[in-house]
Amino acid sequence: VSLSALTKNLPVIAVNPAYGADIRGCRVLLIDDVMTTGATANAAARALLTAGAAQVDVLVLALVTDAAPQA
Predict the structure, then answer these.
(1) CA 19/CA 47 separation, integer angstroms
(2) Global pTM?
(3) N or C: which end of the chain has fewer CB within 10 A?
(4) Alpha carbon of 58 to those of 4, 34, 38, 71: distances in Å?
């Protein structure tokens, strides 16, 4: 079995269990400078919600709407 097969369903971002009590029940605001696909913000929000955050909001300063290179 390959390593990629073993890890493909593991989260890419996780909350350190030592901070679980600090997050549990809290509203969390993630701030990102530039969002392209939203995959990182989504993974971070999922990790925080899994750790017990009551709500996660994301504030983005710039959104890439078309990541295709210009010719």
Answers:
(1) 12
(2) 0.75
(3) C
(4) 30, 11, 10, 32
